[in-house]
Fold each of these.
Amino acid sequence: MEAILAAMRAAQGVEGISEGNASDDETRDDATTTPAGEAGRHRAMQTVCAEFAASAGAWLGGRWYQHFESWLYSRRGGDADADAFPRGEDAERDAVLARKLRASGASDGEATRICRRLAKASENARRAAASAEASTRFNAKANRVRRREFEVGGDKGVRKVELSCGKVKLEVNARHYAGLRRRFEGRADDEAFHRAAFCLLARYACLQGTHYKAGNMQAAVPTGVLDVLRGKFGVRCEMFASPLNAYLEEYCSAVPATDRQFGSLGSAFDYEPEEGSFECNPPFDEEFISRLAGHLERLLAKNSKKPLSFCVIVPKWLESRGWKRMAKSVYCTSNTSLEAKEHAFISGAQHSRVDQMTASAAATSVIFLQNRAGERKWPVTADAIDMIRAAFSPIKSHTPRDVEKWDPDAPLGLGTNTRRLPAGSKSWVYASKRQSPADETVETPAKKKKKSKKVANGAISADFFRD
């Protein structure tokens, strides 16, 4: 038994666990992921990304990766935890993607076939990731994480840290790396921290689809907005954050399995406060927002005596169920519109980019949901709304922490200093399958004067991902 526990400690990064003291160790429940397992998950998600680009990208254009991220969120149906892969076929949740494909010229039959191919690719990738995790869980060598520092951008560049496990390399800005180190509960052990940090980076990359330009589904609010909410409304907790972008000390996040070691309170949908003031900036997905609306109304109805207040920041989607439910709620005490280009957000992938602020291309709603006790304690005044507007303003009024130069083609994202997926990414998943869900050949773009090549058995060459 002791030998097995030792192997688990080495693979998972959990120190000091033995048969006698396991019940007293604070980190035992958090060590549910391993670097090798998350690396396998990352590689598997890349194959789904490649399948989406090959089948839907031709219809959706150069920003297909945004549609891919949106599809992932929609198919998960408000549940970002678990394994990040959508499961099975779901015509209802594929409706948005199918509509986009038809609007781009695809026939009904073609749109349906594409959705089915994506569902099959996702399921195969999920199984391959699970198999890879099981086969490496107790392999200490496979779970070793390496670290290196480097700088991009010359004299005015940004310092970055690369964490790698096997062939998967992930980058994080040095500032965010330092923030993770500060939040990490097992501060004494650098090796354990690097294992936990790699798992975190890999999982969030998977949730966004692994493409280095992804991250727009959950842009963060400027820190100045959180300062206003903390000062005027007593906000102490962000209900939709992550260890990578949380500004306040208390926060909920999407993936407790990787986040609890960095202080996360767990999923917002499992969080049941009886009183207090909270900020909610959910992913820009209708299912998430609708689910959040129901959760907040239930909390407010359940706790009528103690002051409870939620500041909800969501896209102004007038026809969506979630937006209408909050805007028309009996608990809605204020509904403010921020017009397009007059406010800005921070990239959802800020931890790996050198940007941060980006002007919003669409209108946003700032909705306050409060019970009567909360309304009395934290009244929404015109002055407070003006301060929120000012804190949301693009670029000029913000500090260097919020606004940095960004080269969208800087190194990052898929784990290498490149703009493409690794060669043979699909073949990694389908190598053991008798039949591939995408047996057709895929033609890669021409590189310089060389002729383009076709790769069989579903594999896509590295040149596939040039923009």
Amino acid sequence: MSEELQDVTPTEVIPTETGAEVENQAGSEATAEQEAEQQTDQQQEQAQKKEPWFQKRIGELTREKYEAKRAADEARAEAERYRQALAQGQQGERTEPEFDVEALAEKKANQKLAEQRFNDACNKVYATGKSEFQDFDQAVSNLQMVGANRDFLELATTSDAGHKLLHHLGTDLDEAARIMVLPPIQMARELTRLEFKLSQPAVKPVSKAPAPIKPVGTGGATSTGLSDDLPIDEWMRRHNQRK
């Protein structure tokens, strides 16, 4: 009987996590993820707030410039393929498809040049406005809020007083909104009129104070005044002139 008995070694029991502990751990991980997402959103919002309006616009123009360049390169490549195909088939003949592609390439190149000029004008106006007006950034941000469109920006930035136009309208949003909804011709007329007004020298206000009283001199004499210090002949001449 004793021989049949065998030693039984107790096995180690590994504690397992309870359901409550698993739920707490999952909840902590979810909370950490939410906090990280909120922090990322806040950082993005702060970055957007700090970014000047013109900087954002310049970034858009830079992207558009490279898109226009890529489109122009693609159009030129397409035109080259047409020319090679025509050279293999009909030497010296010019067909309509080739003409259209070349015209498209020229159009894209002109668009690229126009975007570059607009970009340069925006940079120039922004630099001049920043140097003259301390609140220029706020003024152009206000214009963005009321919907400054491409026609308005092109007309304003090509003006000799573009920085004054943007600053003035950025502080008078009712007038800015009125001008922005006008057709391009009327918009140009209104901006030209405003440019002329802003370019005029400031008129000094007329003082309403009375003119200062001229003090009566006790010594010396004017050309017609009498004085005991004058020679007798001069005194007589002036005396006779006053009669």
